[in-house]
Write a structure and sequence with these properties.
It is a single chain. The chain contains eight helices and seven strands, in the order βαβαβαβαβαβαααβ. It has a single domain, classed as Rossmann fold. By secondary structure, the protein is of the alpha/beta class. α1 packs across α8, α3 (about 80-90) runs parallel beside α4 and α4 (about 115-145) runs parallel beside α5. It binds nicotinamide-adenine-dinucleotide.
Length: about 270
């Protein structure tokens, strides 16, 4: 039976009692997601290849009264991902949500792109997601429930001259999401991805600060967006909370734009 929010009692936090692992959670969108998941009642494993960053985020969550575990791992390494997921399962006795967020972005025109950069981008952005899913799915299938979310990008469906390889990995995540939703829906597992436009993370702010006129550069980028601004990390984090929660109980196989209308506009 469907229960309407607030009906017959006090409102529950959206992820109360859930166990989540978020990759690349040491900064930016992953950091915001980890804090928002914890605020909504989830125990959060903060995985990052930057050990100090992961520990900082986990400590901050614990200091605000949440439950968190820092994991130092590179998502592109099979053994590290298997161990990370097993560690979370052993510690909390469940594995409910995987958020595939870690990625690298190496810019360059395709004909000048180094093979090593191509391989690294594929290894982190695509193989890393494959490995996370590969090791999380058997646990979720045993539980007969679970949620897998991946952070794709508007560049998974649209072009950028300097980000063809990055965009190719993001497009691949959309395809992976759809096939996994079909394959694992019968096991009670929902699979979705989100496609953000620009988000005001340290990386994007740095890009603006490096421009000859940062304010002019900001105005130009913001001007591309129908909402005339870029996203705050917390807005992306809240979308991930929504998709992870029972509020999204019938949403699977979707790629959801979190782009202030950017991809809706042609003229
Ligand atoms: N910032 C944006 O404007 C934007 C827009 C669209 C999509 N995205 C996507 O959102 C996600 C997060 O982006 P962000 O801007 O917060 O990135 P970021 O670069 O600020 O943070 C990424 C985090 O991932 C970690 N990381 C990198 N490689 C790793 C690896 N191999 N193993 C484990 N951790 C690793 C980094 O240490 C870092 O803490 C990415 O998937 C990115 O492609 C970002």
């Amino acid at each position: 039976m469907m229960i309407y929010e607030g009906e017959g009692g006090i409102l529950k936090r959206k992820l109360e009692g859930q166990v989540a692992l978020i990759t690349g959670a040491g900064q930016g969108i992953g950091d915001a997601a980890a804090r928002q998941f914890a605020a909504e009642g989830a125990a959060v494993a903060v995985l990052d290849s930057n050990r100090d960053a992961a520990e900082r985020v986990a400590e901050r969550i614990r200091q605000s009264g949440g439950e968190s575990l820092a994991i130092h791992a590179d998502v592109s390494r099979s053994e590290a991902m298997r161990e990370a997921i097993d560690q979370v399962h052993a510690r909390y006795g469940a594995f409910d949500v995987l958020v595939n967020n870690a990625a690298v972005q190496i810019m360059g025109l395709l004909h000048e792109y180094e093979e090593a950069d191509f391989s690294r981008t594929i290894d982190v952005n695509l193989k890393g997601v494959f490995l996370g899913c590969k090791y999380a799915l058997p646990l979720m299938m045993r539980q007969k429930r679970g949620v897998i979310l991946s952070v794709s990008s508007v560049l998974g469906v649209a072009g950028d001259p300097d980000l063809a390889v990055y965009g190719a990995t993001k497009g691949a995540l959309i395809a992976l999401t759809k096939s996994m939703a079909v394959a694992y829906g019968p096991h009670g597992i929902r699979v979705n991805c989100i496609c953000p436009g620009d988000v005001r993370t340290p990386m994007v702010e740095q890009f603006f600060e490096f421009q000859p006129d940062p304010e002019q550069a900001r105005r130009q980028v913001y001007g591309h967006y129908p909402l005339r601004r870029i996203a705050e990390p917390v807005e992306v984090a809240k979308t991930l909370v929504f998709l992870a929660s029972d509020d999204a109980s019938f949403i699977s196989g979707s790629h959801l734009f979190v782009d202030g209308g950017l991809t809706a506009e042609v003229y």
